[in-house]
C-alpha cells in the first residue's frame, strides 16, 4: 500500500509541475526533460523500496537461537591464515613469499611479526579452547614447509605444523587446513610466474602430497586454494596482459585443485578417511534498478564471479556466457581435464561478507580485460560505511539458494564471514556482534530450508595483519601490534560467540545490556 501511495503522490507531483510550466511559454521546452527525470527517479526509489521490503519480510532472522537449533555434528569454528598470523618470516628456514615481496615494496606495515602465532600458538589454542571452538581453520605456509617451492622439506617448518595440530588435538579442536592462502613461494614466481604457468600444477600437487603424508592422519578436512576467483581476478597479472592472465591463472588453479584431489583419493583417502574441497569468494548481487539491462548485468556478474568456479566443478566446463564473451582468451578444458575437474570437490567452502548492487556499464568501450568482459559495475549498498560491511544476511541465503538451484545441494561450509572494525576502536565491538548474530541466524534459516551446510567459521579469530587496510581488522580478540609481546585482549564479540558455542541461547539485546564495557562501543569507525 505504501508503494502504491508513493506512486500516486509522485505522479500527482509530475502533473502539477507540468501544469505549472505549461503556463510559462518560455519554459515549455523543459517540461519533457523534467517529467522524464522525475519518473526515472520515482522508478529507482520505488524499486529500492520493493527490494528492501521484500527481503525484510521474507526469511527474517530470529533474534534468539542457540547452537542446539543446528543439526547434530554442525561445526562452529574460526580461522586465520599463515602469513597474517604466524610472523617469523625469516626464522627456521622459511623463505620469502610473494606477499613478503609485495609488502616490503613500500614503507607500510608488513607481516614480519604479524600476531607472532609462530611463537604464541599454544597460548592461542588455549584461548580457542576457552571459547569452546569446535574447529580451527589454518593454512600451511608453502615457503615455510618447502622454502624453494619444490624440493627438500624444511624440518623445522614441518615440526611447527605438527606441534600446532597436536596442540589443537590435545584440546579437542578439529583442524581444517587450507593448503594455499595467497602466499606463493617467491622462488616459483621468479622462475615461471606462478599461477599463470602450468608448471605450478605439478609443484602444488607435490606440496599437497607432503601435507597429506605428514599431517593427514590428524587432518580430515582439506581446502586446496582459498578464493581462487578473487585471487585470479585481483592478483595475477605479472606479465601485464590483463585480457588473458586472470583466466589462465584460474584455469591452472582449478587443474591444480583437481590434481590434488585426485592424488588424495587415489593415495590417502582409504587410509585417512578425509575429504578435499575448494573455496569460493561469493558476494551476493542484486540489480541496481529494475531495468532489463541491470537484471541481465546481474546474471552476467554471477556467471563471472560464481559460475566461473562452480560450473567447471559440477559440469566440467565454463559457463556459456563466459565462453561467448571471452572467446579464445578463455582457456578450454581437454576431455581428460574436464573429467578431472568435474566432481573433484567433496564439499564447497563459501567466503561471504556482504551484498552489492550490479549495474550495467554505460560505456561501449571494451578494453578486453576481465572487468570489461563482465561489463557491469558492483556498487555498495546505501548504508555501507567505510570499510565495514552492510549487515544484509539475506544475501548469504541468496548465495546458498543460487548454488542449490543451479548446482545441486552441495555440502557447504561457511569458511569466512565477519565484520571489520577500526583496529583501535573499543573492545565493546557491538557492530561485529550485530553482524555475526544476523549472519549465523541466516545460516540457520538456510539449514531449515534444506541447504546442506556442515559448519560456520567466523573470520577471524584475532586481529591479524590485513592486506587491504591494516587499520581495519576482523578479530574476536584484539592484538596490540605496538606491543612486542603482541598481547591479546578479549572483545565483546568473543563473549557472544563463546556463549553460542557453549550452548547458551544468545540474544542480541541481552548481550548488549551486559557488555563488558560501559563505553557505547562502535559499529564501525
From TrEMBL:
<feature type="transmembrane region" description="Helical">
    <location>
        <begin position="6"/>
        <end position="22"/>
    </location>
</feature>
<dbReference type="GO" id="GO:0019137">
    <property type="term" value="F:thioglucosidase activity"/>
</dbReference>
<keyword id="KW-1133">Transmembrane helix</keyword>
<comment type="function">
    <text>Degradation of glucosinolates (glucose residue linked by a thioglucoside bound to an amino acid derivative) to glucose, sulfate and any of the products: thiocyanates, isothiocyanates, nitriles, epithionitriles or oxazolidine-2-thiones.</text>
</comment>
<comment type="similarity">
    <text>Belongs to the glycosyl hydrolase 1 family.</text>
</comment>
<dbReference type="GO" id="GO:0005773">
    <property type="term" value="C:vacuole"/>
</dbReference>
<dbReference type="GO" id="GO:0046872">
    <property type="term" value="F:metal ion binding"/>
</dbReference>
<keyword id="KW-0472">Membrane</keyword>
<protein>
    <recommendedName>
        <fullName>thioglucosidase</fullName>
        <ecNumber>3.2.1.147</ecNumber>
    </recommendedName>
</protein>
<keyword id="KW-0862">Zinc</keyword>
<feature type="transmembrane region" description="Helical">
    <location>
        <begin position="34"/>
        <end position="57"/>
    </location>
</feature>
<comment type="subunit">
    <text>Homodimer.</text>
</comment>
<dbReference type="Pfam" id="PF00232">
    <property type="entry name" value="Glyco_hydro_1"/>
</dbReference>
<keyword id="KW-0378">Hydrolase</keyword>
<keyword id="KW-0926">Vacuole</keyword>
<keyword id="KW-0479">Metal-binding</keyword>
<keyword id="KW-0812">Transmembrane</keyword>
<dbReference type="InterPro" id="IPR001360">
    <property type="entry name" value="Glyco_hydro_1"/>
</dbReference>
<dbReference type="InterPro" id="IPR033132">
    <property type="entry name" value="GH_1_N_CS"/>
</dbReference>
<dbReference type="InterPro" id="IPR017853">
    <property type="entry name" value="GH"/>
</dbReference>
<dbReference type="GO" id="GO:0005975">
    <property type="term" value="P:carbohydrate metabolic process"/>
</dbReference>
Amino acid at each position: 500500500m505504501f508503494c502504491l501511495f508513493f506512486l500516486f503522490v509522485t505522479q500527482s507531483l509530475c502533473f502539477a509541475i507540468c501544469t505549472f510550466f505549461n503556463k510559462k511559454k518560455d519554459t515549455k521546452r523543459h517540461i519533457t526533460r523534467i517529467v522524464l527525470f522525475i519518473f526515472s527517479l520515482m522508478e529507482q526509489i520505488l524499486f529500492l523500496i520493493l527490494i528492501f521490503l521484500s527481503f525484510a519480510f521474507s526469511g527474517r532472522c530470529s533474534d534468539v537461537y542457540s547452537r542446539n537449533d543446528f543439526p547434530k555434528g554442525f561445526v562452529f569454528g574460526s580461522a586465520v591464515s599463515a602469513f597474517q598470523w604466524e610472523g617469523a618470516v625469516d626464522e627456521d628456514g622459511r623463505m620469502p613469499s610473494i606477499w613478503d615481496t609485495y609488502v616490503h615494496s613500500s614503507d607500510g606495515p608488513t607481516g614480519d611479526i604479524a600476531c607472532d602465532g609462530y611463537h604464541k600458538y599454544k597460548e592461542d589454542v588455549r584461548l580457542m579452547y576457552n571459547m569452546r571452538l569446535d574447529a580451527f581453520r589454518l593454512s600451511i605456509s608453502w615457503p615455510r614447509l618447502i622454502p624453494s617451492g619444490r624440493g627438500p622439506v624444511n624440518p623445522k617448518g614441518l615440526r611447527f605444523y605438527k606441534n600446532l595440530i597436536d596442540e589443537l588435538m590435545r584440546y579437542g579442536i578439529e583442524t581444517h587446513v587450507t593448503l594455499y592462502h595467497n602466499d606463493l613461494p617467491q622462488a616459483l614466481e621468479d622462475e615461471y610466474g606462478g599461477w599463470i604457468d602450468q608448471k605450478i600444477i605439478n609443484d602444488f600437487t607435490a606440496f599437497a602430497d607432503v601435507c597429506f603424508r605428514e599431517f593427514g592422519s590428524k587432518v580430515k578436512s582439506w581446502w586446496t586454494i582459498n578464493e581462487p576467483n578473487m585471487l585470479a581476478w585481483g592478483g595475477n597479472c605479472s606479465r601485464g596482459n590483463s585480457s588473458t592472465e586472470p583466466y589462465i591463472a584460474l584455469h591452472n588453479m582449478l587443474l591444480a585443485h583437481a590434481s590434488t584431489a585426485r592424488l588424495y583419493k587415489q593415495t590417502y583417502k582409504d587410509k585417512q578417511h578425509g575429504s578435499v574441497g575448494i573455496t569460493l569468494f561469493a558476494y551476493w548481487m542484486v540489480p541496481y534498478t529494475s531495468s532489463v539491462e541491470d537484471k541481465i548485468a546481474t546474471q552476467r556478474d554471477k556467471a563471472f564471479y560464481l559460475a566461473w568456479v562452480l560450473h567447471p566443478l559440477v559440469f566440467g566446463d565454463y559457463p556459456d556466457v563466459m565462453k561467448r564473451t571471452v572467446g579464445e582468451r578463455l582457456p578450454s578444458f581437454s576431455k581428460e581435464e574436464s573429467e578431472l575437474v568435474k566432481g573433484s570437490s567433496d564439499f564447497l567452502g563459501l567466503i561471504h561478507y556482504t551484498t552489492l548492487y550490479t549495474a550495467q556499464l554505460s560505456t561501449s568501450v571494451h578494453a578486453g580485460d576481465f572487468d570489461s568482459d563482465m561489463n557491469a559495475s558492483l556498487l555498495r549498498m546505501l548504508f555501507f560505511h567505510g570499510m565495514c560491511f552492510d549487515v544484509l544476511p539475506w544475501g548469504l541465503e541468496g548465495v546458498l539458494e543460487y548454488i542449490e538451484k543451479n548446482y545441486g545441494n552441495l555440502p557447504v561450509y561457511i569458511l569466512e564471514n565477519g565484520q571489520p572494525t577500526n583496529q583501535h576502536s573499543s573492545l565493546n565491538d557491538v557492530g561485529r556482534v550485530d553482524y555475526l548474530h544476523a549472519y549465523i541466524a541466516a545460516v540457520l534459516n538456510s539449514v531449515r530450508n534444506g541447504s546442506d551446510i556442515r559448519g560456520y567459521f567466523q573470520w577471524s579469530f584475532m586481529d591479524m595483519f590485513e592486506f587491504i587496510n591494516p587499520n581495519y581488522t576482523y578479530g574476536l580478540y584484539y592484538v596490540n601490534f605496538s606491543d612486542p609481546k603482541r598481547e591479546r585482549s578479549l572483545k565483546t564479540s568473543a563473549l557472544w560467540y563463546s556463549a553460542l558455542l557453549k550452548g547458551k541461547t544468545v540474544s542480541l539485546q541481552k548481550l548488549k545490556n551486559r557488555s563488558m564495557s560501559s563505553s557505547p562501543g562502535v559499529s564501525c569507525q
